[in-house]
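REVIEWER CHECKLIST
Item 1: Sequence provided? yes
Item 2: Single chain? yes
Item 3: Sequence as submitted:
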Amino acid sequence: NILRNLIFPIRVFIANRQARAALKQFKPHVVIGTGGYASALPIRQAIKLKIPVILQEQNSYPGIVTRRYAGKAQQVFLTYPEASDYLSAHAQTKVVGNPIRPKMRRQDRTAAAEFFGLSSHYPSVFIFGGSQGSQAINNHFIAHIQYYLDHFPVQFLWQTGPQDFFNCQQAVEGNDRVHVAAFIDAMSMAYSLADVAVCRSGAMTLAELTYFGIPSLLIPLPGAAANHQEYNARSLEKRGAAKVLLQHELTPQKVIDALKDLIMDREARDAMGKKALALSQPNATNVIVQTIFDTAWNYAQHSA
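Item 4: Structure as written out by the authors:
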C-alpha cells in the first residue's frame, strides 16, 4: 500500500545504520552472504568498512545480491559455471558446487528397500516436491500411477507433503509396489533406493541428486524467484543429466513418455546417472570452509 511504500526508504535507512553498528560492535573478520535479500545491507556495509566478503551462490542464475556485490567480494563460490555470465568481470569466482548435508551418504540399496517396505529388484522412482509436496506432481500420479504399475515393472517411493497425503494414499491403497509418506526424513535412504527421481529443481535438491548420481525428470517450480529453478534444471538438462518439463507442459502423455524411457531403458538411465554424478562436487563444503578460515585469518593478521 501507499503508506508502506512511503515508509520503506526510512526503514532501509534505519536498517543500514543498524547493520553498520552491528559490524562495528562485533568486528567480524569476514562476512558471508548466500544471495538472499536479507544479506544485502550487511554486505554493503562490510564492503564500506573494508571487511572481506565471501558470497556463495547456489543457483544457475545468481540472486540480485550476488549480482550486485560479486565484483567487490573477496571470493564468489558458484555451483554452476554459467552463473559467472551474469556477474561482474571483476568477480573472483570459483565453481565448487553446493555443500550437502553431512548425513547424506549412500546406503546399501537392499537395506534402503527394506526400510521402505519395497523390493530391491524393481526400478524405483522417487517422487517428491520438497517438504510441502507439489500439488501439480501429485495430481499427475494420483490420476496415472495405476497406469505405470499396470504397464511397467516399476515401484514408487512417493513423498507427498502433508496437504495431498490422504488423496495420494487412497490412489494406491493396498499396492505393495508403492510406499507413500507425507514426509521422509531418511533422505539418504530414499536417494540410495532411487533409480529415477521426479521432482522440483531447487538448488539443494539438485546437489543431492548429482551426489547420488540419480537421473531425473525435473519440473521447475513456476514463480520461483527470478525463475531460478528453470535455470537450474536447464543446467542439468544441457549436460545430459536430467530431463525437464515445465509445469504447463505436464500433459499425461509427455510425463509418461519421459518416464517410460528412464524406466525401461536401463542403458540410457545409467548413462544419465553417470552424467549427473560427474556434476557432483562432494568436497564443496571443505573448500568453502577452508577459504573462509583463510580469509578471516589473513584479515585478522593485517588488521591487528
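Item 5: Key structural point noted by reviewer: The longest helix spans residues 2-26.
Item 6: Recommendation: ____
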